[in-house]
Structures are given as C-alpha cells and as structure tokens.
Amino acid sequence: MEIRNVLYAFACLAFSIVIGGAVYEHIAVVPRWTAAPPVSLSMFQGPYGLNPAPFWKNIHPVTLLLLVISLALFWKTERRNYLLFTIAGYVLILIITFLYFVPTLIAITGTPYNETADALLTSSAKTWETLSLVRLAVLVLLAITAFLGLTRSGSVSKLQHKQEVMV
User: Fold this and answer.
1) d(CA 54, CA 117)
2) Model pTM?
3) Stretch among 7-16, 61-70, 94-103, 155-164 having the lowest mean pLDDT
4) Burial of 159 (0-12, 13-18, 19+ CB in 10 A)
5) Which domain holds residue 72?
6) Do the Cβ atoms of 67 and 93 come closer than 8 Å?
7) How confident is the model at residue 45 (pLDDT cuts 50, 70, 90)?
8) How far apart (Å, rounded) are the C-alpha atoms in residues 74 and 125?
C-alpha cells in the first residue's frame, strides 16, 4: 500500500471525525442550549463549563492539511477533482463558520445566566441550529465526495502520462 493512499485515507478519517463531532453536538449538546436561552446556557457557564473550541481548533487544520497534501499527491490522477471539490467546499464552510456560526454562538452562549427564557434569544438559537444542520448536511456530502475519490484510480492516467512524456 502506498503512503499517499494512507494519507488520503487519513484525510477521509479526519473529515469523518469533523462530521462525528458535529453529529454528537447536534444530538447531545445543541438541543439543550437552544431550548430556552439564557436559562439553558448554564452548561457553558462557570469555570467547568463546556468548551468545545479546543476540539474544533485542532481538527479543522489537521483535516485541511491532510486534504491539501492528498491533493498534491494525487494532482495528476482521477482523484484530483474529488479532492478539489471537497477542499473548496470545506474552505467555504470554514469561512462561513468563522464569519457567522462562531461569532453568533459566542454571542448567544456568552449571554449571562437568567432564570427567564428570552424569546428573541431562543429564536436566534433555533435559527443557528437550523443553519448548522444545513452546514452539517453539506459537510456530509463533501465527505461522501472525498470517499468517492478513494474509489478512483490513484495512478496517472495514460493520456496524461503520454502528454508528459511528449513535453
């Protein structure tokens, strides 16, 4: 087995970990904090509050790096387009995440605890949750694309090889 195939497999694994983290949060965490903020935000409060940031700050760069390395290693193969599509979509998702999802999440979860639910804050939280589920669905489609690339040839095509020899 070639090392570049292993790196591509690790890129797909890292992407799957991103999706796994997002699925976990959407099943176990998001429904709790979006239920009735600021009352439901207690899980983020205090010195032992939930802090998922270290996970996300580490997994995204690793995933992106593995995808880019895989792209470089398979540039002249059928896998290139699958990797290009996946990387482009993932970068777009990351940009949207840093421009909207992270700031909105920080604004909502940073709201001081109160015994009374705020209807406007709850509505914002529910909108965030819905948009985040759309983002997750896009990530799943991108991951499927990356995995489909693994089913394609990792060898330089005969036509490309012939063109290179002629140059």
Assistant:
1) 29
2) 0.89
3) 155-164
4) exposed
5) 3-166
6) no
7) confident
8) 41
